[in-house]
Write a structure and sequence with these properties.
six-stranded antiparallel β-sheet; globular; 126 residues; 46% strand; mainly beta
């Protein structure tokens, strides 16, 4: 069982930066693939970024095209945390951001993530 708690959401102006954090419980945090998703009002939840383990290359990150080059996902296994650094924020980044954990080494969609946080609101006014 993994419990996730997000923090760091706020209102930030266009072009600004924000760092979201997710604290995870459990002693096997390093074994989980971690992801960030977001959901804007009236829209479906969408993938933002993930960080997963590969025996060949270690931890590696994937990003949605819409955030590539602006967002960076990272994890600290010693502290059981995963973070999302968001730069050059745009109004279309406005959403509730969710942290998620998957026991799969290659989660392909939100359905592959078993554990979810409660979400944190990010607002970028237009």
């Amino acid at each position: 069982q993994v419990q996730l708690v997000e923090s760091g959401g706020a209102l930030v102006q266009t072009g600004g930066s924000l760092r979201l954090s997710c604290a995870a419980s459990g002693r096997t945090f390093s074994r989980y693939s971690m992801g960030w998703f977001r959901q804007a009002p009236g829209l479906e939840r969408e993938f933002v970024a993930s960080i997963r383990w590969s025996s060949a290359i270690g931890y590696y990150a994937d990003y949605a095209e819409s955030v590539k080059g602006r967002f960076t996902i990272s994890r600290d296994n010693a502290k059981n945390t995963v973070s999302l650094q968001m730069n050059s924020l745009k109004p279309e980044d406005t959403a509730v951001y969710y942290c998620a954990a998957s026991s799969s080494s290659y989660p392909r969609s939100a359905n592959d993530y078993s554990y979810w946080g409660q979400g944190t609101q990010v607002t970028v006014p237009s």
